[in-house]
Structure formats: C-alpha cells, structure tokens
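Morning run. Coffee first, then this:
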Amino acid sequence: MVETMDELIAKVQGQLYRLQDLTDATNSIRAQETSPDGAVTATVDGAGALVGLAFTRAIAKLSPEDFERVLTQTAQTAAHRAFGERAELVTAYNRTGM
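And here it is:
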C-alpha cells in the first residue's frame, strides 16, 4: 500500500524501469544451434525469428529433403533454446513482484 502520491509515482516508475529492463533483455536474446553434421548453423532472436544462417560445405552431401530436415530441425532447436531463455527472464521478472 502506498501512502502518498510520491510513493505511488516512485512505485510505478520502478515497475516501468523493470519492464523496460525485461524488454531490453528479451530483445537481446540470441540463440545459436549447429546441426550435428556441422552443415547448418541457425541463429534466432528471443521471438524465435531467424536472424542468422550459415552453411558449411557439408550441405553438398545432403539431398534436398535432408537439407530441408536439417535446416528446420536446427532452427527449431535454436528457437527452443531462445524461448527457454525468454521464459527464464519472464519468470525472474514475475518473482520480483510488482
């Protein structure tokens, strides 16, 4: 409970700063995954969007179907890792209370 307007303003301002910190941390998430064969490396942001993709010469050994599978699995694994990082940030934010 707040007793004065100044306390209320300070509390709300603190919450805004915490929310901005959470937003900044979430926006800075980058998760990278390389396929087991080393052919594909995918990098995603905190929303799971693909922001980087690299290939090695090992992709020449893959059929189109295998390439699609490896690319998709690698990007999905990177996204899963990014979502895990984001979940940890949100959990920590929620634990500190409003």
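The chain has two helices and three strands. Good start to the day.
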